[in-house]
Design a protein that fits this description.
Layout (H helix, E strand, L loop, with lengths): L5 H10 L7 H13 L2 H17 L1 E2 L6 E2 L5 H4 L4 E8 L2 H10 L4 E5 L17 H9 L5 E4 L5 H14 L5 E4 L15 H9 L2 E2 L6
Parallel strand pairs: 3-4, 3-5, 5-6
Antiparallel strand pairs: 1-2, 6-7
This protein binds zinc ion (ZN).
């Protein structure tokens, strides 16, 4: 792409770094922003600045939150003995949308992926173990993607958690292999949580 301006080129370069945004789309977005009023663009850049500077992660479940503790963890109406373990905030949103789950969450912040250099220490696994250690947790639902990384993470968590007196289950995989949780429709996802199965695996 030959740009008539270095400023334009740099802006397109930055937008092009976003997931799913190619060079052409990046150019379209930048030209669109250029046509907006200063106030409009100001609101746009401020919202990103504020997001990055002020966002918090819940100290209990590590979900994205405006407060030290997220609304779900702070709620007395939720079942705090039932923890649903997910990859990221998008999964919490997807599961909340089903209105089928009344427990609380634990957001790992990713999945174990040797290919991408993500190990257990990079995820919020210790925080989960600490929650289980309190003895107030009866069941853990591992609601992770039906991918290699998801399966590896489930297996690792199972080995870490099996010594505790807690039931471990996985969501029913009506979800096709390679399926990402956030793209599953609400009915299927809601049902897969309701019909979760105990996770058993012969570990030597
Ligand atoms: Zn929380």
């Amino acid at each position: 792409m030959n740009f008539s301006s270095k400023l334009l080129e740099h802006a397109v370069e930055e937008f092009g770094k976003l997931p799913g945004v190619g060079k052409k789309t990046a150019l379209r977005l930048v030209l669109h922003l250029l046509k907006q009023s200063d106030a409009e663009v100001g609101r746009f850049t401020q919202s990103i600045d504020k997001l990055k500077q002020e966002i918090k992660y819940c100290k209990t479940c590590f979900n994205i939150s405006d407060m030290e503790q997220c609304e779900i963890c702070a709620s007395v109406k939720r079942d705090h003995g039932l923890i649903c373990v997910v990859e990221d905030t998008r999964d919490v949103m997807a599961i909340e949308n089903t209105n089928q789950f009344n427990g609380v969450y634990h957001v790992l912040g990713g999945l174990i992926s040797p290919m991408e250099g993500v190990g257990p220490a990079d995820l919020k696994i210790e925080g989960l173990i600490d929650r289980v250690k309190t003895g107030n947790v009866q069941e853990i639902i591992l609601a992770l993607s039906a991918t290699m990384e998801g399966d590896t993470t489930i297996f690792y968590l199972y080995r870490k958690l099996k010594e505790f007196d807690v039931q471990i289950s996985t969501i029913a995989r009506g979800i096709s292999f390679g399926g990402e949780l956030e793209y599953v429709d609400e009915i299927t996802l809601g049902r897969s949580i309701a019909t979760r199965v105990p996770y058993e695996r012969n570990v030597s």
